[in-house]
Design a protein that fits this description.
157 residues; alpha+beta; GMP Synthetase, Chain A, domain 3; five-stranded antiparallel β-sheet; 29% helix; elongated
């Protein structure tokens, strides 16, 4: 049986050759695999034609690994506007953007912080909240996502 790491490596290599970047990969119910979700980022537009083509190509890769087409659902997409931030690279891609971060241990009495990512290093990020720099170690981040309030305000209004 092919491992999740082997699938990740194969997808990453293929997408790199296509000048795309693998943002995240979710494999549901491994090793039975009922769904494969592939999220990609690019400097160029990610449209329906691209995701449709990638869907077929990535299914072909899985087929070559012995995972039969039709035994799982394949989803290829951009990570979306309010995407989750899980890795250093995700935070790098979100530099300057508004994020909401939930913490394991509070900073200044707060378990939830909202601000703009000012910088990212291997160990920590700098979050700018009301012109104040707050340094957060990655080990203290429970979860994080990009906030897109402009959209929410338009929907409410």
């Amino acid at each position: 049986m092919v491992s999740e790491e082997e699938i990740l490596a194969a997808f990453d290599l293929y997408l790199t050759e296509e000048n795309l970047e693998l943002y995240d990969l979710n494999i549901a119910n491994y090793p039975a695999i009922s769904r494969v979700e592939v999220f990609i980022v690019s400097d160029y537009e990610i449209d329906v034609d691209l995701t449709s083509r990638l869907n077929k190509q990535l299914q072909r890769l899985l087929d070559n690994m012995g995972i039969e087409k039709g035994s799982y659902e394949m989803i290829v997409s951009s990570p979306g506007i309010e995407r989750k931030l899980k890795t250093n690279r995700h935070f790098e891609l979100a530099l300057g953007q508004l994020v909401k971060i939930k913490l394991f241990e509070p900073i200044k009495g707060n378990y939830v912080l909202e601000g703009y990512i000012g910088s990212v290093s291997e160990q920590e990020i700098k979050l700018i909240i009301d012109s104040e720099d707050i340094v957060i170690n990655f080990s203290n981040i429970k979860n994080a996502k990009i906030e897109f309030k402009q959209f929410k305000e338009k929907v409410k209004g």
